[in-house]
Design goal:
13 helices; Sperm_putr-bd; 15% strand; 3-stranded mixed sheet; D-Maltodextrin-Binding Protein, domain 2; 3-stranded parallel sheet; 2 domains; Putrescine-binding periplasmic protein; transport; alpha/beta
Length: 348
């Protein structure tokens, strides 16, 4: 997930607290996005297994990667379960930062959507299992605009749109411009990345960046147009905001938040139990009801209300998924993206 960067919640175990009770069999350390653990979600796990969960709030994939890397270099045990987005699974697996999963301890796999499994970022789901699907699109105030006005990402460049919110996320922003110019959103070509940057500069005066609860500005009426994730649209709709979202003809660039086990996890057995629990139908249903993102569990899908599962702004249709792209690791080229993104935000 690339959503809200929220501070650590109360009761969360800090990174520096190593060599503690988490190495014991009855404690497992979970490092995930704050909103992925709504109140009470873990209670039944502890009741059923006797395993206590110490959870930490994941601020970003980049921060998660750096913390796990540091723990590996220090030789200390760290987190037992982490929640990297798919493109970081690929990166971390290549660098030997993840344990191989024992599928025999994960019977929940049989309930997961096969269309979400065995993807290029982790063939055979050797290191991760998918949890929730993110899809960015063009969100709009239904009192002001019609969905038919937005057929392409290029429509955001129309001169009449002068107050546009984009996600404060380097890849999400550049994905729009890359798709607009017909380029691969996972390109590593510096010249193409620069071309996308130059496209974004053309509308820089009209842009505001926000990834800290981006739905809130649509709920408050501060913005009528912009880029949102599908889960954010669900949040805004729950607040009765006049909002909808369309996926342009070029398709969205999808990401999946996964569950994985770091190489140096001290309680791998408990980690497998926790992953199995978090992906189970009842828990997956509760999580999607709370935050709106599509779940990988097919049985949970059958239990969810149609206002979620039949809303194409939240659950992309088969047609949209077919033309979608998957966000992937771009290696060292991320430094080029970051350089231009900082220049873009600094521009007037």
């Amino acid at each position: 997930m690339k959503k809200w960067a929220i501070a650590l919640v109360s009761g969360v175990a800090l990174l520096g607290a190593t060599n503690m009770s988490y190495a014991e069999e009855n404690v497992v350390r979970l490092y995930t996005w704050t909103e992925y653990v709504p109140d009470g979600l873990l209670d039944d796990f502890t009741k059923e297994t006797g395993i206590r969960v110490e959870r930490s709030s994941l601020e970003s994939n980049e921060t998660m990667y750096a913390k796990v890397k540091l723990q590996l270099q220090g030789g200390d045990g760290g987190y037992d379960v982490i929640a990297p987005s798919n493109y970081f699974v690929s990166k971390m697996a290549k660098e030997g930062m993840l344990q191989e999963l024992d599928h025999s301890k994960l019977p929940v796999i049989q309930d997961l959507n096969p269309d979400w499994l065995d993807k290029p970022y982790d063939k055979g789901n050797k290191y991760s299992l998918p949890q929730l699907l993110g899809a960015p699109g063009i969100a709009f105030n239904t009192d002001v605009y019609k969905g038919s006005q937005f057929k392409s990402w290029a429509d955001l460049w129309q001169p009449e749109f002068t107050n546009i919110q984009l996600l404060d996320d380097v890849r999400e922003v550049f994905n729009i411009a890359l798709l607009k110019i017909g380029a691969d959103p996972n390109t590593k070509d510096p010249a193409v990345i620069k071309q996308a940057y130059e496209e974004l500069l053309k509308i820089r005066p009209h842009l505001v960046f926000n990834s800290d609860n981006p739905a809130s500005s649509f709920i408050s009426g501060e913005f009528d147009l912009g880029q949102l994730w599908n889960g954010s649209v669900r949040i805004a709709k729950k607040e009765q905001a006049p909002i909808d979202m369309v996926f342009p003809k070029e398709g969205p660039v999808l990401w999946v938040d996964t569950l994985a086990i770091p190489k140096n996890a001290k309680n791998a057995d408990a980690a497998h139990k926790l992953i199995n629990y978090l992906l189970s139908a009842e828990v997956a249903k509760k999580l999607t009801l709370a935050i709106g993102y599509p779940t990988s569990n097919i049985k949970a899908l059958e239990m969810l209300p149609k206002e979620i599962t039949e809303d194409p702004a939240i659950y992309p249709t088969a047609e949209v998924l077919q033309k979608s792209h998957w966000q992937d690791d771009v290696g060292d080229a991320i430094e080029i993206y970051e350089k231009y993104f900082q220049e873009l935000k600094a521009a007037q």
